[in-house]
From TrEMBL:
<protein>
    <recommendedName>
        <fullName>Retrotransposon gag domain-containing protein</fullName>
    </recommendedName>
</protein>
<dbReference type="InterPro" id="IPR005162">
    <property type="entry name" value="Retrotrans_gag_dom"/>
</dbReference>
<dbReference type="Pfam" id="PF03732">
    <property type="entry name" value="Retrotrans_gag"/>
</dbReference>
<feature type="domain" description="Retrotransposon gag">
    <location>
        <begin position="67"/>
        <end position="156"/>
    </location>
</feature>
């Protein structure tokens, strides 16, 4: 208890110091919406548009826009926001401008076919999560890829434990490949992959 009493006060930890527009009161009856979250990847301008759309009716209140913005952020984006002094941004435009400049590289660095073939499934993501992340990047390639090309490239990026089975699905739809990939993933996890595929022909999917 004595140790706690000896901890010196740290400046800048008051509510007024940590909060943007600390004197702002939310409008009566206003319910904070569940915002789409930006984690540091994707188009920052698109996120701002969605964020403002979710505040339709109260979005002209600049203080409210700034006050709630952190609720639409996570991960790297939230770390960026909280690393700044709350009074650094005198206006919503200043905050939005800094936000776009910070994450503009997401738009400037457009993936190509080569980078797609280098993408690998992370150890902490499921097959579906990897497929979704990969497909999202494939949609940004210019010139656009055909569905047939998307499937062909996706098959080539498979890990060895998936490849010998997924390769039989060239010509299938992307969603069908994902379903089979999840089945393989489940079989690997339960140890039943050999038994399962002894009576399973993925070409009939």
């Amino acid at each position: 208890m004595k140790e706690l009493q000896c901890i010196p006060e740290v400046a800048g930890l008051n509510y007024e110091d940590l909060c943007i527009h600390p004197n702002l009161d939310l409008p009566e009856g206003f319910k904070v919406p569940k915002f789409d979250v930006f984690g540091g990847t994707g188009n920052p301008l698109a996120h701002l548009r969605v964020y403002c759309d979710q505040l339709v009716g109260v979005g002209r209140d600049e203080a409210l826009l700034m006050r709630l913005f952190s609720r639409s952020l996570s991960g790297e984006a939230l770390e960026w926001f909280t690393s700044h002094e709350t009074r650094q941004w005198p206006s919503w435009n200043a905050l939005a401008k800094d936000f776009i400049e910070r994450f503009a590289y997401n738009v400037e660095i457009v993936p190509d076919r080569y980078s797609l073939e280098k993408m690998k499934q992370k150890s902490n993501e499921s097959y579906r999560e990897f497929a979704y992340r990969w497909r999202k990047e494939a949609a940004r390639v210019r010139p656009p890829m055909s569905e047939k090309e998307i499937v062909e490239v996706f098959v080539r990026v498979q890990e060895p434990k998936y490849y010998d089975r997924i390769m039989l699905l060239v010509g299938a739809k992307f969603a069908e490949i994902v379903k089979v990939g999840e089945t393989i993933e489940d079989g690997l996890r339960t140890g039943k992959i050999a038994v399962f595929f002894a009576s399973y022909d993925p070409r009939v999917c």
